Fold:
Amino acid sequence: MVVNLSEEHSLVSNWVSELRDINVQHDRLRFRTNLERIGGAVAYEISKLLPYSNVEIQTPLGIHTSKVLSQQPVLATILRAGLPLHNGMLQFFDKADNAFISAYRKHNQDGTFEISLDYLSCPTLDNRIIIISDPMLATGASLAKTIQLLKDEGTPAAVYVVCAIACSVGIEYLQRECGKDIQIWCGDIDEEITAKGYIVPGLGDAGDLSFGIKMQS
Structure:
């Protein structure tokens, strides 16, 4: 399942357009805020698909039978670029458990790169719903390795992937490597990717735009 929220002409498409705009990108706070907004919007949409239970709630004047989440999801994010999206979802799933993964491109002198996974902090994942945030789904290699790493720690009930912009090539790769039962939620989808693995037109480096330029490893 792949959902492109910009196809609905929702506010998400407005926020994505600002993320792409080089005349707006210089404002890091606005950039991070737009990612947080997308994270919140996707969290709300995903919440409609999660299992609920009926619970009796005592009010000052009586008892009401309310629907509440049967189980809190695990919100996972790839450091550092995924943090704003993660924070946006955490505003909605405020009782969720959290997982953090360090996954980055380790560049070689010939211009190629490998995915390096250096850090993982996560709760118990067996039979849990995992929602993974990463702003850019380009080649899909980072997310595929991250999902496999999480599955090595436990057997989740379902896996959702949330990104601001995805590339069709990356979507196909992720479905091929991790199974088509992975649900992918995107702010928008681009069709082109460069030989170096960057989405076109994309938006650039989401981590740098959020937090400043980093040293290349």
In short: The chain has one domain: 2-49+75-211. The chain has a mean pLDDT of 92. The first helix runs from residue 11 to 20. The CA atoms of residues 56 and 65 lie 4 Å apart.
